Amino acid sequence: MSxxxxxxQDFSKATGCTVxxxxxxxxAVAAVRGGAPGGRETATLFPGNLVExxxxxxxxxxxxxxxxxxxxxxxxxxERKRGLRTPGGIVPIVxxxxxxxxxxxxxxxxxxxxxxxASLSVEEIIKEGTIGAGTGATVGKLMGMGKAxxxxxxxxxxxxxxxxxxxxxxxxxxxxxxxxQTGELVAGVKLEKRGIIPSPFNTTxxxxxxxxxxxxxxxxxxxxxxxxxxASCIRPFAxxxxxxxxxxxxxxxxxxxxxxxxxxxxxxxxxxGVLNSVTKATGLAGVLAKNDIIA
Length: 295
Fold this sequence. Notes:
Elements: E1 3-10, E2 15-22, E3 27-32, E4 39-40, E5 56-60, H1 69-79, E6 84-86, E7 89-91, E8 94-98, H2 112-120, E9 138-139, E10 149-150, E11 152-160, E12 163-172, E13 176-178, E14 185-189, E15 203-210, H3 216-231, E16 234-235, E17 245-250, H4 259-279, E18 293-294
Parallel strand pairs: 5-8, 14-18, 15-17
Antiparallel strand pairs: 1-2, 2-5, 3-17, 4-8, 6-7, 9-10, 11-12, 12-15, 13-14, 13-16
C-alpha cells in the first residue's frame, strides 16, 4: 500500500482516533454530505485551491473537541520533516473529521497526544471493529441511544485493471445498517409505531484511496458514487442529524479507462467496509454488537 494506518484508543473512555499517513505526493478532496459535520482542512482540499494533496488524514471521536488530535499528527510529521515546504519552514497538510461518541463510556475527547500516538502505532495488518476512531461508534439510533447497536471501523478492498481501491469507514450513523444485496437488517433497531427520535449526534466517516491516477476534479465527481454506495448500506443516510464526510485520495500514476469498473469497485469496497465496521465490532459500555438487533 502507498499509505500507513495507525490506531489509538482507550476502552474505558470509549473513544479513539485513527491516522492515515501518506508519504508520496497525491491528490485529495473532501466532500461533506451530512448536516452536522466537524472537520479540519476540508475546504483546503476543494479543487482549484493551492494545495493538492495531504500528508495525513485522521478520524477521531470526541466531537469537535477531538479535532485537537490533528495537532499531534502535525507534530509527528514535522519531526520527520514531512509536509509542504515553505520559506518559513515545513507545514504538514493534515485533514480530518470527527464523530460524536461522548455518550458512550466516560465522556472524553482525544487530544494532541492521542493523534501523535496513533501516528506512531502504524501496523502492517490493519485492525477493524471496536478500535481507533470506531471505538465509540454506534449505529441504529432511530429510537435513541438506549436501543443503539455497536458500530466501528471497517475496511474494504476492490481491484480495477490490476490496481487497488481501498475503503475505510467509521460507521456512527443515525440510520440502520442493511446488507446491500439482500436488504437484510445487519445492525440496528426494529422501528416501532410510537415514532422515531431525532438524534443530532451521528457521523459516518469514509476514506477512499485509489492506487491509480485520478485528478481532483475526477475525485470530487466520484464522491457522489461513494455517497450512493454508503446509502445502499445505511438508511437513512446523510440526514440533517449526520455529519457524514468523505475523503478521496489518488496516489498512483496509472490511469484506469474502464469507468464502469471503477464505479463497481467503489461500491464493492465501500459496502465491504460498512459491513465489516459493524460485524467485526465488539460490544462496549453496555452497547451490544455483532448483528444484535434490538426490538
